[in-house]
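Aim 2, interim progress. The first record below pairs a target sequence with its structure tokens.
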Amino acid sequence: MAKKLNQFKAEQKRNSQKRIASNTYPKELIIVAEGDSWFDYPLKKDIIDYLRQKGYAIENHAKAGDTLDNMVYGSEYKKKGNIVQHTGPISLQTTLQSIKKLKPRFVLFSAGGNDIVGSDILGYLNHRNSKPDSLINKVIFQAKLKRMSKAISFFIEAVHKTRKSCDIIMDGYDYAKVNGKGYTFIFKNLVGPWILPSMGKKGITAKKDQEPIIKYFVDEFNGMLATLDQKYDYFHFIDLRSKFPKENEWDNEIHLKNKGYKKVSEMYHAKMKNILNQDPLIAFSDRLIAVE
């Protein structure tokens, strides 16, 4: 199974590179992507894999586990003695260089999940034993959300400045599952879980308390993206909330199973069709470089 998955992912990447290298592929089918594990799910199929399978040519800069902060501002640094030097927004520069070179019709962006449910999540939670008015530290979370909105706006404007005739599409995830499942492969846990341990550290052990917390985080994040959708004509938000309500649709706490990512890829395709007022895969079917 592992071999077949690797072959599938490698084949989609090869075909995508062939399309890009042709120099004649329709711009409506060329995409530059930046993001996290929803666009780069190691050893498993993800949204980008399925879009490539359809016929899109995608240069993908996504990296599993990446943060919004790193994608936009950069988080790498060099240290010499007691002096540190920030290396700059390397990821953003790489993405913009691809946009400048390939002149894509669409840029897909998946970011923010690791910024919310990563190590920072502890800061958004109040300890149950402190008898708080709310288990969520809303002041800290809202301050974080404001910084995230600023970072996404920075990304949107940088992309638009680089290529005006380009639309940016981003989803806001669905409600994560607080089930203590991490990312496993061949029965071995490789990373995670991300949420349940943090809840446990704060004494938040009941499902009736955990689920409203996740709902608040995801709703607020999606609300922020919806606001940006209204602000920028060239930014488009896909709402995935409640699209995957069943626990068995999730691979672990924060990742969908293959079928889920295939469904999300269909929603990205539908959004692109809506923006173009036509199905580009049909309109340019005579110029598609088919999957081998």
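The second target in this work package is listed in the same format:
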Amino acid sequence: MTKILLLGSTGSIGKSTLNCIRRFSDRFTIEGLAAGKSASVLIEQIAEFSPSSVYLADSSQNKHIRSRFGDAVKIYEGEDGLERLVDEADYDVLLNALVGSVGLRSTVAALKRKKKVALANKESLVVGGEIICNLLDEGFGELVPVDSEHSAILQCISGFNKSDIESIILTASGGPFRLFEKERFRNIKPSDALKHPTWSMGKKITIDSATLMNKGFEVIEAHYLFRLPYNKLRVWIHPQSIIHSLVEFHDGAVLAQLGTPDMELPIQYALSYPERFPMNGKRLSLPEIGKLEFYNPDLEKFPCLKLCIEAGEMGGTAPAVVNAANEVAVESFLKGEISFSDISEIVAYALQTHANKPGDTLKAIEEADKYTRLTVIDRFNLSKVKQ
């Protein structure tokens, strides 16, 4: 039995992961669960999967867990509770589905224990890619991507040498505003931006997909995951979300991974890797779909993608700055404090005014993150966002 520690268990990725665990209960068992505020959902998960340990960010709700389960489950609490859970629990695979840069410390802690990390927390690589790559190079742990795009790339390059690859192409649906004129962006409401055309996801990543910030993050992730320079990483808009990514080889051949928009496939592949387990469900029928479209992204309408790539090329603490500014801006947009267009303007301001530093320590990254949040909150008169 492979023992899983699942962080972000009450979110969309977490719930899909538990579906995979249910499907292969003879192969996987839940060792620990971690969640944010959804105590009632977490309690239901504890009752079903019987983890040894849990963590809930909203510690005021822990009394409900204790009253239900007593000493049958160990509850980790405090500011360092999540990191202690990752440090102390007895697991084989950490599936990190946390949202935001808060997930970095957990990824680093698991790798230092030489664990396999199935990574859905994209911010870990975006802000701490250099730290993570250094750990991997030193023989600490294993990293397997959960994102559908990076899972697709991993599947396409299996059996090939890195020197065979000419370029990697990540696809993006284009979000709900692909066909909008830029002048309409200031009138976009949060309820409009949360209507993703092909994927069902959490609020933060759905907004990031609407601005194409999410795809910019994925470019930075691909740079670190596959150790390729940014001039070998491209983005195509693909509204049908059927081709999840493509790999172009130096002889001109292109391999692509296709599938219906369902996160359970890449999650299951990450858990079973390098094996491939069976899964029921609807099969892809290209005749039913009829056509597959592809376009180059419009960087004038969606500057967040460009800003992300610029930050990635700069390296150091620049990606952490872009991520921090974006987290504040997205939360402010969801609260109705700023317009949709303001998100990219806030990120651009943060990146342009940032004094870049090396990003090879957690301290440097966390200081840049904190400074950026305080700066943009003050500069744009925003309410404080809890990380």
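The two ends are 35 Å apart (CA to CA). This observation will shape the mutagenesis plan for the next reporting period.
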